[in-house]
Amino acid sequence: MRVEYLRRGVPLADYQLTKADHRRQQEAAEIHERVQRQVAKAPPLPEARLKRVLELLGSPPPAWEYQQWRLRLYCGHIVEAARLRTSPRPDEGARNTKTCSQCGLNPSVIVAFEPLGPLADPPPEKRSRQPSRSPRKPPADRRSRAELAAENDALRAELAALRTQT
Ligand SMILES: [Zn+2]
User: Measured in angstroms, how far is the CA atom of residue 101 from the centroid of ligand 1?
Assistant: First the structure.
């Protein structure tokens, strides 16, 4: 399957915020506040249910299932992030914001983006027919600490959302 990756507001360094960006940032901040208040009020998730949720989530997909993106955030910082390679853009649904790793703004709305490339090469059995290459060591898992932290944040957000349903 080929995905046509989109880009917005390139070059990222010259991007000027729009009225819509300011509005989206305000909305994201309000939602974040509301969720934080809900989570603070909610009783802790029972141990058994927590275990079940973690089972359902399973292990995260391997690195080659991710596409790497360069993002410009509302605060003006340019950061990189990985998204599942099946997404044509990095700001779909609940993933339209990110905690800025440079200034700490949370949430910071994604205002512009450009695709960089796959996070890792797929394993040989997943590759389409290609000219054979000289054997080399398989790529190491290139997910950075920041990426793993982001996964962790996403997991926590899902757990928080489940808690508010109890
Ligand atoms: Zn920032």
Answer: 7
pLDDT at 55 exceeding the cut of 80: yes
Q: Which domain holds residue 161?
A: 12-43+61-121+142-165
In a domain, 74, yes or no: yes
Model confidence at 139: pLDDT above 60 = no
Residues near ion ligand 1 (CB < 5 Å) are: 75, 77, 100, 102-103, 105
Is 148 or 113 the better-scoring residue by pLDDT? 113
For the chain, how many structural domains are there in total? 1
* Structure confidence at residue 124 as a pLDDT band (50, 70, 90): confident
User: Is 139 within 8 Å of 120 (Cβ atoms)?
Assistant: yes
Distance (Å) from CA 103 to ligand 1 centroid: 4
| 113 within domain boundaries | yes
Ligand 1 centroid, distance to 111 Cα (angstroms): 12
Residue 26 within any structural domain of the chain: yes
In angstroms, the Cα distances linking 33 to 29, 38, 52, 100 are 6, 9, 27, 17
